[in-house]
Amino acid sequence: MTIQGEQIIGRQIARGAEGSIYGVEAATGEKLQPAFGGATQADLERACQLADEAFDPYRALPAERRAAFLEAIAEEILALGDELIERCCAESGLPRGRIEGERGRTMGQLRLFASVLRDGGYLDARVDPPMPERQPLPRVDLRLRNVPIGPVAVFGASNFPLAFSVAGGDTASALAAGCPVVAKAHSAHPGTSELVGRAVLAAAQRCDMPEGVFSLLFDSSRRIGQGLVADHRIKAVGFTGSRGGGTALMKIAASRPEPIPVYAEMSSINPVFLFPQALEARAETIAKGFAASLVLGAGQFCTNPGLVIAVEGPALDRFVRATGEALAALPASVMLTPGIHEAFERGVAQLTGHAGVETVARGQEGGKLRGQAAFFAVDAEGFLADPMLQEEVFGASSLLVRCRDEAEMRRVAERLEGQLTAALHIEAGDHEAVRPLLPLLERKAGRILVNGFGTGVEVGHAMVHGGPFPATADGRSTSVGSKAIERFLRPVCYQDMPDDLLPPALQNANPERLWRRVDGVLTQPSA
Ligand SMILES: NC(=O)C1=CN([C@@H]2O[C@H](COP(=O)(O)OP(=O)(O)OC[C@H]3O[C@@H](n4cnc5c(N)ncnc54)[C@H](O)[C@@H]3O)[C@@H](O)[C@H]2O)C=CC1
Ligand SMILES: O=C(O)CCC(=O)C(=O)O
Questions:
Q1: Which residues, by range, are in coiled-coil regions (predicted)?
Q2: 9-266+478-487 has CATH 3.40.605.10 classification
Q3: CATH code linked to domain 271-450
Q4: What is each CA distance from 73 to 66, 152, 203, 334, 422, in whole angstroms?
């Protein structure tokens, strides 16, 4: 397959006519060929119209057909072979091993949602049988199942060009739910986006999906992205990116005549709490793990450990020293785009020049387009006095907050904004100190983890990759794992509906053999 600089609108592959976008080789800043044409208003209109028309036929397909479609997408992505891997490495600056791993994760996500469809639990089928004899009033027949919400706009993320992009978790969960997707490619990896988009189209054709189930647009300004969120046929938005970008889209969605949900994953500094006994027992080991997590993917993970909170003392000094040694041995890595590198440099310069902040360690020198890891420290009073110190510096930068005691650690925790993750490093002797902090962390974070770091999200059934604002726009949701499908579903109740008019999931004979909640009790399909 060759990259042509073309977008996909329904079954049509054509070059957009609104300006040009070029991929950039992340390591050199050189332009990559070919040019990609940006979408026009007419392209946007057609993609949304086709998505709207595809919605009813697509959602009416048996779950098995949608599952096969998701699996076909995974196969088609794999079939892109080395062309995808090479283009993705060039555009992102991420190493081959990481991109191959990310491709595996992307395929795994698609297959996970295929299994979710076959399981049927996502429908949450419920039957409250009628009680005609009930006194003082009879009870009606009530049945509930989830239905898809409608066409979804998906904004590809810069930092996971496969797993959080054109056919990433948002697209996989929306398609699984029964929602057509209009994807907006991230301009940091247009070639990767086109290749993956073509793979989705090939799968759609192979599986005979309705036209409009998937479209892919390029945006040479921000107008197409904004127009997509504003379009009345779009019913939800999936986004991973900056706080500024996410909140701009939230505003557009909220001010529509019909407001819609935006599932934006934005900014998180992922606090790491080091408890005294753990520090005492293994300051050096924790430091090694911390440094590795900090520089993973040039620090460009939304789960990056950007804040460390600990009580000052000799054990913490050991941790700082060991972190310094570990970082000094780690080379600077190419960042995703010149713009992201520039933003990182700006954030680091701001901390370096901050009166209350001390630079305690740096990684090996960066040079052009490479981010040099940075570890800073501030005392708790200084941290609490300046909200700017909570702002995410996207890249390998972290801030240590030195506390006088555990009460001060708690005060720092109380002040934190919403987070994707909170990590606790503890030994058995720390448990009593940790226990009272847990209810607070539950209010702050989507995932609380012990003796590890948040980078590297497991894609499974019990994963939560979400958290209160600004980690995400809606802390009741997750963008990773099977539960992510719930973002694109809504419940419909059928009251006194004749059996032959009910969807199969709710018919008396239970032809899909679903587990259903009957009168409140989870009930196995009868033999
Ligand atoms: N916390 C996280 O997971 C991530 C944070 N970032 C942050 O975002 C910065 C820039 O990186 P990007 O990935 O480019 O994020 P971004 O938020 O600038 O862009 C993400 C996507 O949203 C679109 N977009 C952004 N603002 C928009 C607006 N006002 N109207 C319409 N569309 C808009 C962009 O065109 C792009 O497709 C990074 O330096 C970093 O600070 C980036 C990636 C992940
Ligand atoms: O840590 C991961 O695997 C995922 C991180 C993530 O969601 C992000 O950086 O956008």
A1: none
A2: yes
A3: 3.40.309.10
A4: 11, 18, 5, 30, 34
At 220 the pLDDT is: 87
Give nearest CA residue, ligand 1 atom 41: 394
Which residues have C-beta within 8 Å of that of residue 220, sequence separation ≥ 6?
Answer: 16, 18, 19, 20, 21, 37, 38
Active-site residue (options: 89, 207, 302, 403): 302
Contact (CB, 8 A) for 117 and 179: no
Structure confidence at residue 366 (pLDDT): 75
Could you tell me where the DSSP H helices lie in 353-436?
Answer: 380-385, 406-415, 431-434
What is the distance between the alpha carbons of residues 304 and 219, in angstroms, rounded to a whole number? 28
Annotation says 265 is catalytic: yes
Q: Residue 335 C-alpha to ligand 1 middle, in angstroms?
A: 14
Q: Whole-structure pTM over 0.95, yes or no?
A: yes
- The verdict on whether 207 is a catalytic residue reads no
pLDDT in tens, 124-152: 999 999 999 999 999 999 999 999 999 99
Q: Which two tokens stand for residue 372?
A: 């040099």
Residues with CB under 6 A from ligand 1: 155, 157-159, 184, 186, 219, 222, 225-226, 240-242, 245, 248, 265-268, 302, 340, 343, 394
Nearest residue to 114 (alpha-carbon basis) of 58, 57, 63: 63
- pLDDT of amino acid 48: 98
